[in-house]
Amino acid sequence: xxxxxxxxxxxxxxxxxxxxxxxxxxxxxxxMNVVVxxxxxxxxxxxxxxxxxxxxxFGVETLAVxxxxxxxxxxxxxIAAAAEANGRVDVLVNNAGITRDGLAARMSDDDFDAVIDIxxxxxxxxxxxxxxxMMKQRWGRIVNMxxxxxxxxxxxxxxxxxxKAGVIGLTKSLARELARRNITANxxxxxxIATDMTDALSDAQRExxxxxxxxxxxxxxxxIAHLVRFLASDEASYITGQVICVDGGMSL
Length: 252
Ligand code: NAP
Description:
Rossmann fold
């Protein structure tokens, strides 16, 4: 068996930028082969750039795959491509996510459905496909990106909060189903992290948020990636079905 075939394989959805990119880098730094994912062919070059950068820096095998996780066939193809290239899928990080904010009274069905389809159903599609392989392997780590908004709610985000609360229920149920096969499933609930997603905040909104954060700053993608790396490791084998907030003390 070659050194590359010996390495664990991690799939990180939505890893062209932001938290997903940081997670992909961190798992590669831990010695895993990494599958980087973009939502479409249009953003595939961004995924390819991340994959190339990681391969060069950490000396692991990488693959860039365009797949919209909201579409069952594309999510299945993403996991199949990872398995085909690596002979296994050991770690799945469901990070792909979007927001379509607006007050509930004025929110369209399209905005509600789009967020549920990607954040919640996309997570389900990838979990289902990867769990089948992990059950045969009798080892796996699933980390699903929720949000403090899924725990506490937020004005203007009924769709997003529902999707992220759904991710928590899904993760706990999956953890119960898979525990006997050495597969853990946990949810990470970031607070406000400096990425494209939070770039849209006005200065006033940003100041109001920071004033509620004990640490006095927005989080960095690496703050999340460090926890994901631990949850994906052998050392985290007795942690499953948990929701871990990483929010600088905002929710205290
Ligand atoms: P981001 O910078 O906006 O990046 C989103 C990533 O998701 C991109 O790689 C994007 O790919 C991908 N994506 C979007 N729709 C997709 C789809 N249908 N299929 C596959 N990939 C898709 O977001 P982020 O701030 O890093 O957030 C990452 C995750 O953390 C999300 O689940 C988000 O809800 C969660 N989160 C973020 C924060 C925060 O403060 N930033 C807080 C709590 C939770 P493309 O480049 O192809 O569009």
